[in-house]
Write a structure and sequence with these properties.
The chain has 453 residues and is of the alpha/beta class. It has two domains: 1-82, no CATH class; 132-410, 2-Layer Sandwich (Transcription Regulator spoIIAA). The protein has helices at residues 2-12, 64-80, 94-101, 104-111, 115-132, 169-183, 208-220, 240-248, 263-268, 275-287, 306-319, 339-342, 350-364, 395-402, 433-438, 440-450; strands at residues 17-19, 22-24, 32-37, 43-48, 56-57, 140-146, 148-149, 161-162, 191-198, 227-233, 253-256, 292-299, 323-328, 368-374, 383-388, 406-410, 415-420, 423-428. The strands form five sheets. It has a nine-stranded mixed β-sheet with strand order 14-15-13-12-11-10-9-6-16, sandwiched between helices. Strands 3-4-5 form a three-stranded antiparallel β-sheet, with helices on one face. The chain starts with a helix and ends with a helix. Bound molecules: iron/sulfur cluster (SF4).
């Protein structure tokens, strides 16, 4: 049912109801659509009630899951008159398909992907492969999660804690992470990249932040020349002194994310900083010596026009960060934003124009796309793309998305992957920080067993 429900969600959002082998949808069309896979693996889809439509049958040697999606997408697209930029590719990694077929024409004709997206996917897939080739299956990538933020953005459903309401929790959380890292030190060999993400790790004030970073990196002992990234995230959590402490801890790459430079939107989405605070934080980061800065922008934020997005984009480009990540707004379950407010599935999709503009403008400015992924429930079913200047791509991002490298994650709310004979396994851990702190010994035992330390 998963492939079929993914495609139904693409057209009808979370209003679909799944019951055993049946999906029901409230919509203005009356159809019964049946998808079957026979004993020989031939897939067929039939829509009763659609005038003149015959059964579509599998014509290509592609996995049944993908074929079901492909056929169902065509039927629903014909019924609703709606096309999506990525066609029937609803999975999180369209670059995987692009790397298999490497042809714009094939992606377009087979999966109904729009030619500009097919081109982007093929180009990015080649870049991902080139970057991954610089690493080895024995290499290890480390993630440290800090699920605390200074308040919650309206579109976020991440298990993040408002630091001001839970200020007592953070030092205990840091201690628990350090315990975990110490216990796992036997597995921390050939560490090629470390990513300290969130949440917003810079909610920590000095001296807690400096102590935490120095303790973590002292225990991890990354390889010489390893990439070390800290997701500073919200500009209102930064100061020149804090950025200096981060730099002195040996961190070379930092993310400062405004998401938009329109102050009105920043207020709407519940981010308690202004565009000026972003410019200031960026200036401090350069001053203390960061030579690799990433900035994130989000397309499709509530109330934003294409002109607003272009304004943010152009102002980011004048700062010349080493990498820029463009996200399509994703309304996750549990966030404060109302679905209808952000998902305009059946009308014009301004986010599509924003993402298309960003892609060509960023490439024109000397960056190249190097990793790409999709999430469920994004505006217009659009993608997230990381662009970088040559040699400034984030190795961790590529390795983590590839599912072909070991990622050892510390902290709450993170999944772990392990390469075994070219395949990977995941280990999900406790997501809530309070529970994580209380049960850290249990987490350590599970992780030691999982990684066979
Ligand atoms: S900064 Fe990121 S993790 Fe924190 S509330 Fe906003 S979207 Fe969520």
């Amino acid at each position: 049912m998963f492939p079929a429900s993914d495609v139904c969600r693409l057209f009808f959002g979370s209003s679909i109801r799944i019951e055993k082998n049946r999906i029901e949808i409230d919509c203005p069309y009356e159809y019964q659509i049946t998808s079957r896979v026979d004993v020989d693996g031939i897939v067929s889809t039939q829509a009763a009630g659609l005038a003149g439509r015959n059964t579509i049958k599998s014509v290509a040697q592609i996995p049944a899951n993908r074929e079901i999606k492909r056929q169902l997408y065509r039927v629903l697209s014909e019924i609703t008159g709606i096309c999506f930029p990525w066609g029937s590719l609803t999975g999180i990694r369209p670059t995987l398909v692009a790397s298999e077929i490497e042809s714009v024409e094939a992606m377009t004709s087979m999966y109904d992907v729009r030619p500009d997206k097919a081109q982007l996917a093929i180009r990015t897939a080649r870049e991902e492969a080139r970057i991954l080739e610089k690493t080895d299956e024995r290499d290890v990538f480390v993630y440290i999660g800090i699920p605390f933020c200074p308040g919650r953005c309206t579109y976020c459903s991440f298990i993040t804690q408002d630091n001001f309401r839970n200020s007592g929790l953070l030092p205990d959380y840091c201690d628990a992470v350090i315990r975990e890292i110490r216990a796992m030190s036997g597995a921390l060999k050939r560490v090629r990249a470390v990513y300290i993400g969130g949440g917003t790790p810079t909610v920590m004030e000095d001296p807690l932040l400096s102590r935490f970073l120095n303790d973590c990196l002292g225990l991890i002992r990354p390889d010489e020349g390893a990439e070390i990234t800290l997701e500073a995230g919200r500009p209102d959590t930064m100061s020149e002194q804090k950025l200096l402490s981060i730099r002195r801890a040996g961190i070379g790459r930092i993310c400062i994310n405004p998401q938009t430079l329109i102050d009105r939107t920043l207020r709407t989405i519940g981010r308690k900083h202004t565009s000026d605070q972003f410019y200031k934080a960026y200036e401090w980061a350069r001053k203390v010596g960061f030579s690799s800065i990433n900035t994130d922008l989000i397309a499709g934020l509530p109330g934003e026009t294409e002109q607003d997005f272009i304004y943010s984009m152009e102002h980011i480009l004048t700062r010349m960060p080493e990498s820029i990540t463009v996200h399509a707004l994703c309304k996750k379950r549990g966030s404060n934003l109302d679905t209808e407010q952000i998902l305009s599935r059946f009308g014009d999709e301004p986010a599509d124009g924003m993402v298309t503009y960003a892609s060509s403008r960023i490439i024109q400015s000397g960056y190249h796309p190097y990793y790409l992924y999709k999430q469920k429930n994004t505006v217009g079913a659009l993608e997230n793309t990381g662009f970088a200047k040559e040699g400034k791509e984030c190795l961790y991002n590529v390795a983590m998305m590839s599912d072909q490298r070991t990622v050892i994650a510390f902290g709450a709310g993170i999944s772990k992957r392990l390469v075994i004979n070219g395949k990977f396994k995941r280990l999900d851990c406790i997501r809530h920080p309070r529970e994580y702190i209380d049960r850290v010994e249990e987490t350590i035992r599970k992780k030691i067993e999982f990684f066979e330390v």
